[in-house]
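Chain X:
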Amino acid sequence: MSARPIPPVVAPMPAALRPMHEDDLDAVHAIELRAYAFPWTVGIFRDCLRADYPSWVMLRDDAVVGYFLMSLAAREAHVLNICVDPELQGQGLGRRLLRALLHLARARQVERVFLEVRPSNTGAIALYHDEGFNEIGRRPRYYPAADGREDALVMAIELLPPE
């Protein structure tokens, strides 16, 4: 009996980041549909692109696996949407997306970044706390939910200038 060679362990290709294009919207929306019970429409993503909001995708093996969109005004940024394909969550990709968003915000002289998150999204809340966000308030009945509406936790981080 001859031994078969053992195939090498192949690690997934590292993820790359680049600005989002309209050609990405079908892939982005497919992730959005898998990730959220109340997803954004393709039109919302398109409107954000056309409004020139900073919008980036994360690619692995040339496939979109995550994205973020933010708005900027008066040295403040607002995280509009940040998401990793649910099949790939738990691998640090969300942290990488968040750090890229914060890096981009700093480069644009943003002093403070805000976001809203569902209290039921404990994984995201833990990530935001771990990256330096603090809860600063609550928006009652902000999100649609299966049983009516769900509050939003409002979180923020102060961006210090680079040393």
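Chain Y:
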Amino acid sequence: MNAARAQRLCAFISCFLALAAQESHSETLKSALASAYANNPDLEEQRAVVRIRDEDVSKAAAGHRPKAGASFSAGPQKSSVRQPGGRDQLRNRLYTDDENFGHPRSGTLNLSLTVFDGWRSDNSMRQAESGVLAARAILSAAEQEVLLHAATVYMDVLRDTAALGLRKHNRAVLMEQLRVARDRAEMGMATIADVAQAEAALAQAEADHVGARESLRASVVEYREVIGHAPVRLEPAKGCERDLPTTAEQAVERAVAAHPQVISSLHQVDVATMTVKVAEGALMPSLSVGGQVFQQYDSYLGYPGTRQFSAQVTGTLNVPLYDGGAEYSAVRQAKQQLGQAQVHVSAQRSAVRAKLAASYSRLATANAALHYGGTVVRSSERALQQIRNEAEFGQRTLLDVLNAQQALFDARVKMVSAQHDRVVASCSVLAGIGGLSAESLNLDVDRYDPAKNLEQIRELWIGLDTPEAVASPSIP
């Protein structure tokens, strides 16, 4: 008895652990979004784009820093000099030849510092910083697109899984319906037409089952590409409606002010403004100071032991007068680009409003489909049961039963699609107002800080290696 009880206890513990392990492998929408945030290659690529733009700030800062250079030369030198041999010999046109062979060597060290360049370096710094902020806003937009895509594929798998289950059930019911029709036909209670209709319905159900299976397979493949792993026991999702503004007007107001695409376009206006100022700086005078140290050995006609040394400090003032008009054209072109950037802000706001309105429409449609879909399903269930009862007494044909069953199946499929559409549309609305991010969703993931790389390289005067904290990120 004790052995039997111990065996039953072990079996219970094994079942409990198996269920716990199975439960631990279930996945929620938030965990899937966190996985996509950490592993999606498109997001990693956009983060790399921001790090590339960070280097523009470091390059612009070089305009305020001194510049140094050194040059060295060495090599054999042969010299041949013919000169008069003396006064008497000169009248007799007599000369002496002197040949020397040496190894002259020289070195030069140059230092320079730009004191004033028409504020081009300062404006270039502001231009680069605005470009970085624009790239970060694009990164935020990319993050929203990736998370929205992840939510969509998550719901695609849930929808296609449920649809496949419904089609399996529908196929099983139709197989039973065909069996009953054949039995009734053998007893003379059904016609050949009834059997043919049941066979046609079953054949269509078989085709729909194959289509549903392949749709699920395609959704699983896309899920793996976006999320980073295959789906495992996906939990139902509630969507993002609780995070949305109470009214559509508030959503539009928030979207045109805080959507990443709008923020990026505003920073692009700043970039274009600084581009104008940089171009105007080319018309202003510049002032620089420099120093040079020069040392040379054995350079005078190859004679060994000769030496030459020089050192100088210079100030250079450059005043541009006219250079063919290229600078003026550059200023006009930069102003045209500024006008284009300002127009682009309005275009982005219009696009955001239109996209948000479409998302709200899809959300309203999905909510209506869910609200009325439940009534449709319940009514279709009652109708099917009543039609089956009437068919038992010959008051309904088999075609009536098949049609009622198809109506119920369609209503259930539409309910599944409506649940899918509601979650996706709510996430789309949240993305439309700029709120679909790892921070706003409080995802359990290490969040990427785009400012960290710039902090590490802003004052970096020398070095070839990228910062270790962000260099060469590993992509699973």
